[in-house]
Amino acid sequence: xxxxxxxxxxxxxxxxxxxxxxxxxxxxxxxxxxxxxxxxxxxxxxxxxxxxxxxxxxxxxxxxxxxxxxxxxxxxxxxxxxxxxxxxxxxxxxxxxxxxxxxxxxxxxxxxxxxxxxxxxxxxxxxxxxxxxxxxxxxxxxxxxxxxxxxxxxxxxxxxxxxxxxxxxxxxxxxxxxxxxxxxxxxxxxxxxxxxxxxxxxxx
Length: 204
Fold this sequence. Notes:
13% of the residues lie in helices and 33% in strands. The chain has helices at residues 17-20, 89-97, 103-107, 152-160, and strands at residues 3-7, 26-30, 35-36, 51-53, 55-61, 77-84, 87-88, 112-113, 118-119, 130-135, 138-144, 170-172, 181-183, 188-193, 196-202. It has a six-stranded mixed β-sheet.
């Protein structure tokens, strides 16, 4: 199973779309060992003092595909979840200083807490999904998929031009353009899709 992430994929207003859509998607991968499921608490990683949260919708791939067309791409999604793409920002800064990769900053154990999935049939319009994140009861991020720079279909078509997508692969599809920040030990995170609480955990 592959975990694929896309960076910098949301705008604040639809008027920004044409300028933001350059054709160059920021893609990275994360190891399966970064996943935390079933609303288990997440151990605050010892490798960082700067743990940045980003709430994201996660698309689960339901069948194998390579060089998937834009028109067919959404049919490869079997389910949708909500997750947190964590970044150790101090680790990332140190790696970037040496022109290094994102792997350690994005791939540590616990870097990808994720809810259970809802079938894609629950979402008649993938371009009109609301999701949000609350931390300690305070709303921090609000997202709507109409503000994605690259849609689910565009991500799948692009990624599959480089690598075969397989059943069970996960794609973290980007975070809202505003509201991301740092977590501290003891924070309580709750993420919802269409008002339904699906992800609920504490940093311990």
